[in-house]
């Protein structure tokens, strides 16, 4: 076994010297009792850090220590399938390395909160994909915040074990970019001693002074068996090479380095999410073109192009505003129109089915699943809550694809030229969303039919008053919105036929939110603490919109014809909406 102290200074080549210096710094942490937390992405830098961390843990164990290493990575649920499969395989190899050498190694794949996923956020009508020139909060929602929450939970559990404060090992390097260099220096990052990051956590950057060539030589050093390693890194090298259509990972990395410097937004991933709109990431397209083994991902590329090419197609947007001012709502493109959402749901379900069929023929696991059961239910429920689809529409699409042989292939559409957002118009709706409802109508999180049948039993929904005095169902709450896994499986096993019958029977007046209420009553949905009152308000708003013909697949031209321009608003309306009279340059 290699031990740092056996090699006199200057006896090794520079890369081995650098590796020894990193090993020494990491071993000092272990000797001081600090658990190691490796921030791992599957790329070359984090792979190098993981190799160093596990080697240091091995040496510490050989010296009589009891090291602990936690390796954490993030799954955005829209990862490039090759990257997702790669880091899962590498994490498995790390666990086997730990078992083989008696080292405690914990691996975790951290996912975003369900409400923050691309699928739920976009398909529920709450947001658009992150396009260039917009807020671009996907990196924060899908990567940064979930990892931060995981680390806090992890650190609390380690403290409860009586362990010293963990130190997170990063793969950041000064030469990556000028912006990265400045940020690292401001944080005081070092390869020798831990520094505090903005969250107050201790971090060490063992390879911060390494050049690209040093990283690749270090990968070769460990991957080739010269030093103990959890991996040979062949898959990582393959992905780097094929991402630019070459056979050499080092050459490919240099090309990706240039492409990475042009990525937009806060995401620094070289091989980005397959739905990414912030940068035109061509890595997956290059892989598909380079080798037939990646042909399965062609549909994901078509989906990406469809979203990119339709960005400025304003007829595909939802024009009905949510905010009432002066008795009017704004009529202007915002998130996706219900018809566009239906298309996207169908395309994703079709891609999932095609991939499952391909995987079954090949005798392997599917490479991706865009709408697994929990996300399918979340989307179906929230589309109903927002009046974007008839109850149980997602299940109907699922049936049409899997049982009836219908196909929803993604079309190749021409790219719509960039244009400014159409001028806002305004529609009178009254001072409150439900001010035309009959006093006895329960248009929020209530169901008079259900409650009348269960009034004298304990089977009915429990009731609770909100802060504003409204009585609503006392749905279970937790830190964040979620779908109960057991309830979801029971629905899939026993209830789908009944849901499809309800969908096929058609929607009755006032029942546009029926599927949301059904899932809630079934015990399938858990809301965040703030969502009970919020979802009641949304349900009432949706019921009112439904009475006005502003839900489901409404006609945009007819809607605009019903609305008036800013100049035609009464004085109270013009005062309330004066900001909307300013010409908009937003690119949405």
How would you portray this structure in words?
With 588 residues, this protein is an alpha/beta fold. The chain folds into two domains: 14-232, Rossmann fold (3-Layer(aba) Sandwich), CATH 3.40.50; 310-581, no CATH class. Helix content is 45%, strand content 8%. It has helices at residues 14-31, 44-62, 81-101, 118-123, 138-160, 178-187, 212-223, 234-242, 249-260, 283-290, 298-309, 338-362, 373-385, 393-402, 448-453, 485-504, 514-522, 531-547, 556-562, 571-576, and strands at 36-39, 68-74, 104-110, 167-169, 195-196, 202-204, 328-331, 425-428, 463-465, 471-473, 477-478, 482-483, 525-528. A six-stranded mixed β-sheet has the order 3-2-1-4-6-5. It has a three-stranded mixed β-sheet with strand order 11-13-12. A two-stranded antiparallel ribbon has the order 7-8. The N and C termini lie far apart (57 Å).
Q: What's the short version?
A:
The chain is 45% helix and 8% strand. It has 588 residues and is an alpha/beta fold. The longest helix is centred in the middle third of the chain and has 25 residues, at 338-362.
Count of runs of 4 or more consecutive helical residues:
20
Structural class: alpha/beta
Shape: globular
Low-pLDDT residue spans: 1-11
Main sheet properties: 6 strands, mixed
Quote the distance from N terminus to C terminus: 57 Å
Cα-based radius of gyration, to the nearest Å: 27 Å
> Please, what is the average pLDDT?
90
Helix content: 40-55%
Number of strands: 13
Q: Please tell me the total number of domains.
A: 2
Read across the widest sheet, the strand sequence of neighbours is 3-2-1-4-6-5
InterPro entries: Rossmann-like_a/b/a_fold, Sulfate_adenylyltrnsfr_sub2
GO molecular function, one term: transferase activity
Organism: Cupriavidus alkaliphilus
Keywords: Transferase
């Amino acid at each position: 076994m290699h031990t740092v102290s056996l090699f006199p200074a200057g006896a090794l080549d520079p890369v081995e010297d650098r590796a020894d210096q990193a090993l020494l710094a990491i071993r000092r942490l272990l000797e001081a009792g600090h658990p190691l937390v490796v921030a791992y992405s599957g790329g070359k830098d984090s792979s190098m850090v993981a190799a160093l961390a596990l080697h240091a843990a091995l040496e510490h164990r050989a010296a009589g220590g009891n090291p602990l290493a936690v390796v954490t990575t993030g799954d955005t649920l829209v990862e490039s399938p090759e990257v997702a499969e790669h880091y899962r395989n590498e994490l498995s190899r790390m666990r086997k390395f730990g078992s083989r050498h008696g080292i405690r190694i914990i691996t975790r794949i951290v996912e975003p909160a369900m409400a923050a996923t691309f699928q739920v956020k976009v398909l529920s009508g709450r947001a658009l994909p992150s396009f260039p020139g917009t807020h671009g909060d996907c990196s924060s929602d899908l990567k940064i915040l979930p990892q931060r929450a995981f680390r806090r939970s992890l650190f609390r559990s380690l403290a409860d074990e009586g362990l010293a404060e963990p130190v997170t090992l990063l793969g950041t390097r000064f030469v990556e970019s000028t912006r990265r260099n400045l940020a690292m220096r401001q944080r005081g990052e070092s390869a020798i001693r831990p520094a505090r990051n903005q969250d107050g956590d201790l971090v060490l950057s063992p390879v911060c002074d390494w050049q690209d060539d040093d990283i690749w030589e270090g990968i070769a050093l460990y991957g080739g068996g010269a030093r103990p390693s959890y991996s040979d890194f062949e898959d990582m090298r393959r992905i780097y090479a094929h991402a630019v259509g070459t056979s050499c990972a080092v050459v490919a990395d240099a090309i990706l380095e240039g492409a990475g410097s042009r990525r937009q937004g806060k995401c620094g991933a070289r091989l980005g999410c397959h739905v990414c709109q912030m940068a035109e990431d061509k890595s997956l397209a290059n892989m598909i073109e380079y080798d037939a083994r990646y042909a399965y991902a062609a549909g994901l590329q078509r989906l990406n192009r469809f979203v990119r090419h339709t960005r400025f197609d304003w007829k595909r947007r939802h024009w009905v505003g949510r905010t009432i001012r002066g008795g009017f709502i704004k009529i202007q493109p915002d998130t996706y129109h219900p018809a566009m959402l239906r298309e996207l749901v169908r395309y994703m379900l079709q891609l999932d089915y095609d991939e499952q069929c391909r995987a079954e023929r090949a005798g392997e696991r599917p490479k991706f699943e865009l709408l697994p059961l929990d996300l399918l239910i979340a989307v179906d429920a929230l589309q109903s809550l927002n009046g974007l689809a008839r109850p149980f529409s997602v299940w109907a699409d699922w049936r049409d694809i899997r049982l009836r042989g219908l196909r929803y292939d993604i079309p190749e559409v021409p790219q719509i030229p960039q244009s400014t957002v159409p001028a806002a118009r305004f529609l009178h709706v009254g001072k409150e969303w439900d001010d035309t409802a009959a006093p006895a109508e329960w248009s929020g999180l209530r169901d008079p039919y259900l409650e009348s049948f269960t009034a004298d039993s304990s089977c009915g929904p429990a009731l609770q008053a909100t802060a504003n005095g409204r009585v609503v169902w006392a749905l279970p709450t937790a830190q964040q919105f979620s779908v109960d896994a057991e309830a979801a499986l029971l629905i899939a096993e026993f209830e789908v036929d009944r849901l499809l019958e309800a969908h096929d029977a058609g929607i009755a007046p006032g029942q546009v939110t029926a599927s949301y209420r059904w899932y809630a009553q079934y015990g399938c949905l858990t809301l965040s603490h703030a969502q009970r009152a919020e979802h009641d308000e949304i349900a009432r708003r949706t019921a009112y919109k439904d009475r006005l013909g502003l839900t489901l697949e409404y006609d945009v031209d007819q809607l605009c014809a019903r609305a008036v321009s800013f100049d035609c608003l009464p004085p109270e309306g013009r005062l309330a909406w004066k900001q909307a009279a300013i010409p908009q340059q937003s690119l949405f």
